[in-house]
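Before the break, one more example. Copy the sequence into your notebook; we will annotate it together after we see the structure.
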Amino acid sequence: MTDESILTRIDRVESHLAIQQLAARYALAVDSKDVEGVVSLFVEDVNAGSSWGTGREALKRFYEDALSHFYRSMHLIAGHVIVFDDNDHARGVVHCRAEHEAGAQWGIMVMNYKDDYERHGDTWYFRRRRLQPLYSTDILSRPRGPGFLRGWTGDSGEPSEGGDARLPAEFPTFAAFWRGFPPAHVASLTADPVEPIG
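Here is what the structure looks like once it is written out:
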């Protein structure tokens, strides 16, 4: 094996890992309402759609709107298949199960994302993400809310110290995102905001 082929293989492994991190970082940024974090994962000249325009500022407006329709969420990545077109372009499919709190409803969506990836310099970005839903439904048995840990005894039988669930309040971007919306809008989405409303 030549030194050049070894370097090529190492580059492919590093690229594969970097692209997988895009999907994981996207899920974390969406769940923490980190709009800047979401937008930074896309190429600078991203097409945000005919209603929004081109570029990261347009994409930021898109995500500020999209993320304002649900309060808490959790996007669980279930698999990621990546196919390379060349050293700087790849395609992928990411399976995902998402849960969203929107007022009295807890919605579940099972879906995948069909992605195009592009490397600029040493960094991989999304060129495009296409959501492909399989189904969405309200959860049949509502999850216990943010206070579900109160009085809970763990495996040791001792009461937990936590009290409230820590997510999404531990994300500094989460509360900051919701401060930009009228209190009535936040109240329509959750009965248990991470910060007092008003």
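Residues 3-185 form a domain with the Nuclear Transport Factor 2; Chain: A, fold (CATH 3.10.450.50). The first strand starts at residue 73 and ends at 86. Try to locate both features in your own notes.
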